[in-house]
Amino acid sequence: MSPPPTKRYRMGWALVVLVVAIVVHVLSVWAAPRLIMRKVFEGVPAASGTNRAFYPPMTSAESRSIVMPSPDLLYAIWTYDLAGGPVRVTASPGLDSYWSIALYSAASDNWYVINDRQAGGRPVDLVVAERGMMRSASAASTSATVLEAPSRKGLVLMRVLVSDYAKDSARYEAARRTFSCTQGPR
Amino acid sequence: MGTAQASPPASARRWKRWASGALAVVLGIALGLGSAWWAIRGWSLAGPVHTGAWSTSTMSGHVDADMYTRARVAVGGLLALSRDETMYYVARADDSGAPLRADCRYRIEGAPPPARWWSITAYASDLFLFPNAIGRYSVNGSTARLGENGRFAVVTGPAQPEGGDFWLPTPKSGSLVLTFRLYNPEPGIVSTPASLAAPSIIRIGACA
């Protein structure tokens, strides 16, 4: 026996609410990190200039761009778009304390990181390429580590541990400014 | 005239159905957005793994994170490192389970964790740093004073503690979020993060 028309209508109405809610919920959760990263991709070049690394001042209460900043780290940031070709990331901080260079995808995942211990005192030399560029990037970069990026857009973040910035600012600034990113031809 | 007399009930029914359908869609969108925000807000880098007053997620920043973890990290801890590089433990309550308040004093005491370097940072509920007169936002492996027992002690609160304890200043109002970072943690902690002997957080006296 089928339910009366009014009851059927109400069940259909509730089903529409439920289906729309589930679809919007899943899409929102999936899209949130991508939309937040998109804001970062727009914000970093606006602060530093296109194709230039951003060297924010030492973190303080006035640092309100990205949540949970670490007050013990000095940062250098670069955003990339591999549509313009592979990106070469180099750095030679020359510090015996912790530093790292981390790569993030457009979905905000930390898909690669190298720190001072892993570098073993050698300069960092990375080439970030899309899947289709891997062969040419590998051929052109015999000394660099070639990495296949999971997304066309991404972000490179250098962290330098600072124990006393006021005392050693020149040393720390020199270390983080060895961080350089350049984009090569496709 | 006959058409004019017959059409109002039919058009009214159509309008009612259209409005009802639109209401269902709007309600669905509102429920979807609201439930998504409820699911991802307020977590920061906290997660299902607990030790003392602290909790962590082993998937923060990781490429294999599920979409909820990824969204929570993006909202409350964007650009976190994956667990092999750094582990993040978050506390929003003290050892008794009471929510942390910036206007209260807390004694945080523990042993340096098995990691290359560590820090404990005080954040406001918006997950940014508190302004304070001495420009101190954290205690870390370099600044912590270890006692003869090899343990460190820190006091948070709006007023400098007597007795020379390390002071982590907080404002006179609002809530407080503490983040314990472990850089290059030992493999044992990476594989079993609940095994960390996390610092205790005990409230001292009345709040300001």
Short description:
Chain A has 186 residues and is of the alpha+beta class. Chain A is built from four helices and eight strands. Chain B is an alpha+beta fold and 208 residues long.
Task: Characterize the structure shown.
- The complex is a heterodimer of chains A (186) and B (208).
- Chain A has 186 residues and is an alpha+beta fold.
- Chain A has helices at 5-48, 116-119, 134-140, 165-176, and strands at residues 73-81, 87-91, 99-105, 110-115, 124-129, 145-148, 153-161, 180-183.
- In chain A, the strands form two sheets. In chain A, strands 1-7-3-4 form a four-stranded antiparallel sheet, sandwiched between helices.
- In chain A, helix 3 (134-140) links the parallel strand 5 (124-129) and strand 6 (145-148).
- Chain A is extended.
- The termini of chain A are far apart.
- Chain B contains three helices and ten strands.
- In chain B, the strands form three sheets. A four-stranded antiparallel sheet of chain B has the order 3-9-5-6. A four-stranded mixed sheet of chain B has the order 8-7-4-10, with no helix packed on it. In chain B, strands 1-2 form a two-stranded antiparallel sheet.
- In chain B, a hairpin with a 2-residue loop joins strand 1 and strand 2 (54-56).
- The longest helix of chain B has 39 residues, at 2-40.
- Chain B starts with a helix and ends with a strand.
- Chains A and B meet through helix 1, strand 3, strand 4 and strand 7 of A and helix 1, helix 2, strand 5 and strand 9 of B.
